[in-house]
């Protein structure tokens, strides 16, 4: 008798579960969206932000997926299998362009949140006159220098190439490595060659890019190539002796410990160095390419953006847009700045709570002394293969200057002929 | 029990069917798809049916060209003008007619996608284009893929001037590249030959102008010509040495551990262990070895970062990791050799060398066949060790064909071309291993 009763209760419960589970009206209450991102330095912070958002909109929950390395590989594989995440963190320019061109991204041009973004940041997400992503953070690549070491040897942050040369020779005489090296992975050299090339090209950059995309120009055209590769030679001569062996972690360790006085890197690296040595006292300056201080502009642009997949269901689309909207609220900006330590792109966002190098970045931005991230405007394969590997090979002596330029030109021609 | 012949055949197929089904879904179909993709220019991102089209393109390029009224109706059902009025967007989520309540929606299903694809193909809209043999032809011109000759510059303007240069280096890498008589005499005036140690030595106390002139001269003319292996060259290099050394060490270890050594079971486990450890940990441990221990032992500071040494460094790790597995196969082979044969030879007075070459090796031939096949096929398609150690770098120095395929597909976004390379690799592996197998089998039969 008892057993029967138990069975009856159990089957009642089971059928209840089945009914509730299958009922679309009950299930539709809550929308779950997936946010796919690659910035591995903000894992905990993204969790906090998602929780804060869900607190405000209890009917929406955000599932976070973080793929740090090869995130594009995973993303493409998921897109190809028709399983696109709702919100996708993409690198500015080329990545946004590619996915927008393939039709994967929803058009955000008329979303109210876009009007809150500073105008200078919109270029990085505009494809064919329409905006396909929300620019999220500004980042800069340049020289991060250790103020304590500079003060110790009475050095001033260099504004011209000659000053940089003398700073380096003073440092070397005192047994300090001028630049913490990162040669083992090829991406850093890709950034550096593009940064030097862009700074040397100056005003000629955009017309040149235009010509280049029509197949009428060469990478060598807007600059004096001797000057460009001379700068690479100079950089190489001021690295660690075992530079070829050093990867990102070793670069950070060398810089954070004071073994090296400077590093040519993006500001995200400063963030990592702070976790090794919290007492680091640093500044951030552009890499001077010649002796005209007016030419040295900071290589800074939009870094990451959030895009919404065009294939999302209407409910997911609504939730995703609400999330983007929420990102522009003071609460979210505060978390973005103070917890994630990223420079926001929203108008009038308060970044005064950030450390000195970030303040330097914001100052250069406000003064308009910046160059755009040209490498993000190159076709993806040109930057990923020809620039990164080509420049690394030049540094290791595997390819001469003409070879690097030829490699870039050939890859570029192939990409635009597709 | 006697079963009829018919039933036997039926049972045989019944037994085989699940395996065959799995084989077809997981091997044959992907293979056919792969061959298909190798003739296209697909970049890995563009979907098979366009997700959005410009208004003019859609109206003039699709609707105007479709002759069949039914098709037109079908396609306008799924492509609708977006709010901005300039794009037709594929409706991935459409209202569900099956559900009575309005507002519920469902995702497009495969049948509908195929139908859309078929209709769009009629008007020539195929995002993925077939380009024939172009991918295969391009491989012959790919200068990453094939070995090539490069100049390697040995001095840059900002380096410290070399105080001494070896006589041979001085003559072949520097003096031979300078044509001007004036420059030659200048060079020979600052570098004087010292017959005692066969070196050219830099004169002391040079003026700044002379030093600068020398720097420019050296940076332009001090270089060497050398061969770059290229992707194919590296893969063959890696395969050759990996097959030879992994098998050699495995055989030696197996012969030693087959004797009545004390602790031999513990030792067998130890030598097999590298094969069990996760590759990520292997890479981590060896990176540490190459950074801290090898420089201290050899005095060479850069291993994995040096384009000359990195191929050998990865080879060391691959051999270390691979030979334990081969050793187990050899050990099993050795233990199947009947003890009476060995004893008989001992009685007959054969020394250990005769025993090794006349008895053990011939009887080990099946093990040789398996080990060579295994290591050959595996080395030709190595990816994991090279990727975790060095990501195929520095430059392209440790890029095997599979790493190159990965980079082509996912970094250069050339899915079609990468698939073509993969097809070629697949054929190469099949050909090489079947040559090896047929040669070895013939030897086995001869015995």
- Count of individual helical segments of chain B: 17
Q: How many domain regions of chain A?
A: 2
Number of spatially distinct domains of chain B: 4
The second-level CATH architecture of the largest domain in chain B is Orthogonal Bundle
Fraction of residues in helix of chain A: 40-55%
- What's the N-to-C terminus distance of chain B? 40 Å
Strand order of the largest sheet of chain B: 1-3-2
Considering DSSP H and I runs of 4 or more, what fraction of the residues of chain B is helical?
A: 55-70%
Work out the radius of gyration of chain B.
33 Å
Instruction: Indicate the low-confidence ranges of chain A by residue numbers.
Output: 17-28
Characterize the biggest β-sheet of chain A: 7 strands, mixed
Instruction: Specify the CATH architecture of the largest domain in chain A.
Output: 3-Layer(aba) Sandwich
- List how many beta strands of chain A DSSP finds: 14
Shape of chain B: flat
Of all chain pairs, the largest interface belongs to: A-B, 51 and 55 residues
What oligomerization state is this entry in?
Answer: heterodimer
- Taking all Cα atoms into account, the compactness measure Rg of chain A is 25 Å
Annotated CATH topology of the largest domain in chain B: MetI-like fold
């Amino acid at each position: 008798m008892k057993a029967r009763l138990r069975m009856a209760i159990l089957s009642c419960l089971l059928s209840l579960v089945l009914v509730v589970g299958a009922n679309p009206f009950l299930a539709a209450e809550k929308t779950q969206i997936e946010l796919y991102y690659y910035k591995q330095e903000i894992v905990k912070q993204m969790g906090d932000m998602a929780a804060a958002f869900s607190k405000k909109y209890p009917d929406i929950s955000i599932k976070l997926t973080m793929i740090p390395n090869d995130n594009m590989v995973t993303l493409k594989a998921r897109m190809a299998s028709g399983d696109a995440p709702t919100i996708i963190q993409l690198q500015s320019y080329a990545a946004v362009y590619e996915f927008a061109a393939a039709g994967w991204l929803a058009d955000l041009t008329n979303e109210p949140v876009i009007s809150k973004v500073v105008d200078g940041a919109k270029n990085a997400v505009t494809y064919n006159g329409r905006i396909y992503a929300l620019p999220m953070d500004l980042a800069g690549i340049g020289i991060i220098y250790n103020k304590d070491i500079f003060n110790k040897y009475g050095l001033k942050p260099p504004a011209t190439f000659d000053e940089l040369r003398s700073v380096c020779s003073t440092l070397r005489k005192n047994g300090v490595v001028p630049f913490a090296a990162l040669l083992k992975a090829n991406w850093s050299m890709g950034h550096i060659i593009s940064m030097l090339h862009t700074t040397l090209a100056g005003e000629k950059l955009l017309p040149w890019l235009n010509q280049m995309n029509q197949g009428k120009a060469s990478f060598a055209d807007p600059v004096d190539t001797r000057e460009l590769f001379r700068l690479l030679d100079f950089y190489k001569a001021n690295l660690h002796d075992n530079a070829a062996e050093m990867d990102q972690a070793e670069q950070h360790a060398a810089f954070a410990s004071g073994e090296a006085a400077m590093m040519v890197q993006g500001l995200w690296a400063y963030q990592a160095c702070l976790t090794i040595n919290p007492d680091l006292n640093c500044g951030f300056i552009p890499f001077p390419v010649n002796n005209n201080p007016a030419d040295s502009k900071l290589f800074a642009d939009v870094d990451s953006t959030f895009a919404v997949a065009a294939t999302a269901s209407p409910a997911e689309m609504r939730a995703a847009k609400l999330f983007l909207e929420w990102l522009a609220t003071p609460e979210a900006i505060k978390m973005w700045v103070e917890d994630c330590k990223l420079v926001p792109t929203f108008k009038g966002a308060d970044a005064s709570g950030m450390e000195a190098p970030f303040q330097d970045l914001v100052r250069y931005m406000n003064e308009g002394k910046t160059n755009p991230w040209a490498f993000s405007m190159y076709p993806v394969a040109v930057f990923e293969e020809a620039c990164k590997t080509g420049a690394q090979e030049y540094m290791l002596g595997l390819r001469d200057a003409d070879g690097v330029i030829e490699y870039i030109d050939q890859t570029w021609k192939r990409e635009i002929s597709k | 029990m006697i079963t009829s012949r018919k039933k036997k055949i039926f049972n045989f197929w019944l037994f085989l069917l699940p395996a065959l089904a799995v084989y077809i879904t997981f091997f044959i179909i992907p293979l056919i798809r792969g061959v298909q993709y190798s003739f296209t220019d697909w970049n890995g991102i563009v979907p098979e049916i366009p997700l959005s089209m410009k208004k003019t393109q859609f109206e003039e390029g699709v609707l105007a060209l479709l002759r069949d009224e039914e098709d037109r109706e079908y396609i306008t059902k799924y492509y609708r003008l977006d709010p901005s009025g300039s794009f037709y967007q594929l409706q991935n989520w459409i209202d569900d007619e099956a559900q009575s309540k309005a507002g519920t929606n469902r995702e497009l299903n495969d049948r509908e996608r195929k139908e859309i694809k078929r209709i769009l193909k009629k008007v020539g809209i195929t995002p993925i284009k077939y380009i024939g043999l172009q991918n295969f032809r391009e491989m012959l011109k790919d200068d990453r893929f094939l070995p090539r000759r490069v100049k390697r510059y040995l001095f840059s303007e900002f380096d410290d001037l070399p105080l001494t240069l070896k006589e041979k280096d001085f003559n072949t890498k520097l003096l031979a590249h300078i044509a001007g008589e004036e420059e030659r005499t200048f060079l020979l005036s600052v570098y004087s030959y010292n017959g005692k140690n066969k070196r050219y030595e830099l004169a002391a106390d040079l003026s700044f102008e002379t030093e600068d002139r020398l720097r420019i001269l050296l940076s332009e003319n001090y270089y060497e010509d050398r061969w770059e292996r290229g992707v194919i060259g590296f893969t063959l290099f890696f395969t050759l040495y990996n097959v030879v050394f992994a098998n050699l060490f495995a055989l030696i270890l197996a012969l030693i551990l087959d004797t009545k050594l004390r602790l031999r079971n513990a030792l067998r486990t130890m030598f097999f262990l590298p094969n069990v450890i996760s590759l990520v940990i292997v890479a981590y441990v060896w990176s540490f070895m190459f950074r801290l221990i090898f420089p201290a032992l050899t005095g060479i500071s850069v291993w994995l970062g040096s384009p000359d040494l990195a191929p050998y460094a990865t080879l060391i790790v691959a051999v270390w990791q691979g030979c334990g597995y081969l050793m187990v196969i050899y050990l099993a082979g050795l233990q199947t050799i009947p003890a009476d044969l060995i004893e008989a030879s001992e009685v007959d007075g054969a020394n250990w060398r005769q025993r090794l070459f006349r008895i053990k090796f011939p009887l080990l031939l099946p093990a040789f066949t398996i080990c060579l096949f295994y290591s050959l096929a595996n080395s030709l398609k190595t990816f994991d060790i090279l990727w975790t150690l060095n990501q195929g770098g520095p430059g392209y120095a440790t890029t095997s064909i599979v790493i190159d395929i990965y980079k082509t597909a996912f970094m250069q976004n050339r899915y079609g071309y990468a698939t073509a390379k993969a097809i070629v690799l697949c054929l190469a592996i099949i050909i090489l291993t079947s040559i090896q197998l047929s040669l070895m089998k013939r030897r086995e039969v001869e015995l």
